[in-house]
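Duplicate of earlier report; Protein CIA1 input re-posted below.
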Amino acid sequence: MEFLDDGNYELREIQTLEGHTDRVWSLAWKPTAGVDGVAPVFASCSGDKTVRIWEQSASSRSWNCKAVLEEMHTRTVRSCAWSPSGKLLATASFDATTCIWEDVGGDYECVATLEGHENEVKSVSWNASGTLLATCGRDKSVWIWEVMPGNEFECVSVLQGHAQDVKMVQWHPTMDVLFSCSYDNTIKVWWAEDTDSDNWHCVQTISESNKYYTPTFLSIDDLTIKIWGADITRMQSGDGYASWRHLCTISGYHDRTIFSVHWSREGIIASGAADDSVQFFVESKDDLIDGPSYKMLLKKEKAHDMDVNSVQWSPGV
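Output:
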């Protein structure tokens, strides 16, 4: 996205990356790449049962597939996530497993396979310190895994509470607070008040959002994006849990189901949907009397030929 001389923004396609032979479901930027002279890297996962690692060339600036992670998953790979250190990549599959891949000098080796879910694993997420991994699936459960020495993973808690498939899990970016969202039309917030405890419990159920998907500050209804806020300072100070509350709703822009949203470091919200468009929103400074409001910054029609399943800002944006 470029800022033009007339004060407007333009979204320009740089390159189309091809290689997957089925629908691409999710993308994940490597957090330690793309900064301090390190080439940008991201992973993509697909219905073709593979994960591809893409890297940008420093000389030509073109993107190339550097590795194909295959032969471990036997069904669709639905979600992928890098550990904060960038050394490990977790991939969640409809084959009921989550694989952990280690980056060894650009070569990727599967060092662990996590089993326990009854069927499809639909999402995977690391906490901010990289010590915990969360997975969720069609079996209505959320699993929390602790990272042990030697690339071992121990399940420390199985969280029950959702009445239907759990579609996504996401950790808060700075605290060990976990969000899960489900086809049961709820978002659940999980917390262990003692950071050394495995006693995870649901501290809040948010049911105003009528669908599922991404709950980190943002939640998605079929055609709307909801903004939520909480007293983070209170929780960080150890003064107890602070409930999330609905601040505002962005609506009237996408005309088909929204599949993905992501907030940039600069405060720009990107959204992708079944209407094949990518849209961008920023907070409006015009009227803050009743709380924050957002306006459209840019809309890119036909960003893809089909559904936009995932939008992700790079770490430096």
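The chain is about 0% helix and 45% strand.

Merging into the original ticket.
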